[in-house]
Every structure is written in structure tokens, then in C-alpha cells.
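USER:
Working in pairs, take the chain set out below, taking as long as you need, and write a paragraph about the fold.
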Amino acid sequence: MRRSLLLAAVVGSLLASPALADVTVRYRAVIPEGGPAHMRENPPALTISADGTGQARWDMAAPVPAGEGGASPPSIALITREGVGYFSLNAPGGQMQIVGRVDDAFAIGAQFATPVLQGPARETVRQVMSQRVEIIPVGPEIVSGIQGNLYRIVIVTGETRTPPIEMVVATDPRLAPIGREFVRMVESVRPTVVEVARGEPQVYTALRAMLSLGAPLRIGNEMRIDSVSTEDVPDSRFTLPGPVLTRAQLQGIAAMMTGMMQQQQGARPPGGPPATPAPPATPPADARNPG
């Protein structure tokens, strides 16, 4: 990776940042012409709101398939309040809602993923850990009327180089709180990545460096920023929508869903990898809802 980029990321994180202000941004997926009509008319979207006290909320919802006009799509919200990250998962049609702590979800995910990534998928992990990343600054680019800088990212595996992946990051100070939220999200995932992969892949290090430079405006031709609002964000937007489940309760749900998927898949073929066992129960976490 270019040392200059890493140096810029470190220096940027140490310099004084502008004061936090309320801001809401909307990203949308870019669906190709051959994609499903309902997705082109109503592409998947990501909305992020942040306020001056450090609270934030991410909302992601899938588009409603054709013929299901009245159904609510599956969605997930990530809410940060009082320095703690929470998630709210809504099943299609609003039939089930799960609210929990993000760190509990990552811990449970690591328990399920570790046996696979350090067993059948160990070679894949080894290849990822051996990859190098080159980040090439290109120059200014405006996306949806917002100023940013374009970078091209190339992943090198042995003698193989991927086609450049383009990423535009914002230089507009209005988006500084959104950039901080991306950095906070990536940093929250880092302990789990390091634990599961037994180290930090350079691909992940490069992502952290890129997001330290600013909020993304465009990622390839797949996602781009759609709108920015600097209107006040009401506190109610950061209220948790239900009681927070304990880690033990979340583990029980994860084990139940895993069992259901294994039943649907049927018995494994001879010589196939064994089913991933449910992780052991842990003492309940604090289940109080601070909302």
C-alpha cells in the first residue's frame, strides 16, 4: 500500500476536526439495465443520520419484490447511542423484530465462523492474508454535486492483479460526521476480523485507511451517494425500537436458525464437512433498554 496514503490517514485522524453537526445522507445501489425492474425502480438504499452528540443510525432495507406491494421488506438498523452500538433486525412483513448489541452479534458470529475459517476455509483465509493492496490517487471528482477525491484500488495475489476498483471519498466538511461513522463501524468489526483470521488482512487495513480520508461518495459503479441533508435530526430517531436481547438469547436464536437451515439442506453428503455446532451459551449480558 502507498505509504503516503497511510500517512495521510494517520495525520488526518490527529488533526482537529470540524465540530459535529446533524447530517443525513442517502446512498443508493446502481442497478444495471438488465437487473430486475422492481430493483431498478426502487434500488436498495442506505440512509445514515448523525447528530452533534455522537448518536447515529444506519437504515438498510431491501426492495419489495414485484407482486408484494403492501409487504414491508426485510430491514436492519444500526443505532449508536451513549457510545454503544445496537442493531434492530426486522423480518419480512414485520413478523419478527430482534434488537441486540452489535458487539454481542459480532462475538456470536465469530463463534460460528471460526471453526469454518480455521478448518475447511483455511486456505481461503491464507490467500486473503497474503494479498497486497495498491491504492492509487487519481484526482478530484464530483458525485451528486459533492466534492471528493477519486482513488483506484488494486488487490494483488501472487502475480495476479484485480481490475482497479474505484472509490471516491468526500472532502466536503458537511460529511465529516458520516466519515466518522464509517470509521467507527470498521473499527468495531476489527477485533472480530483479527480473531477469526488470526491477523489483520491488508485488504482490511486498506479499507480502514480509505475511510479515514473521508466518507465514501461512490464505490465502483455499484453504489453512490444520492442526497445530503443538514436539517436537525430528532432524538427520537435514535430510540431503540424494542427491548435489548441478551447474548444468550441471541445465541439461542442463532442456533435455532442454523438448525432450521441444516434441516432444509438435509443430511450432508458422505465426506462433506460436519455441521457447525451451536456455540456454547455465555452468561447473559445487560438487557436493559436505555431508550
Notes: The first helix runs from residue 3 to 14. Residues 125 and 216 are 27 Å apart (CA to CA). Residues 3-245+256-265 form one domain.
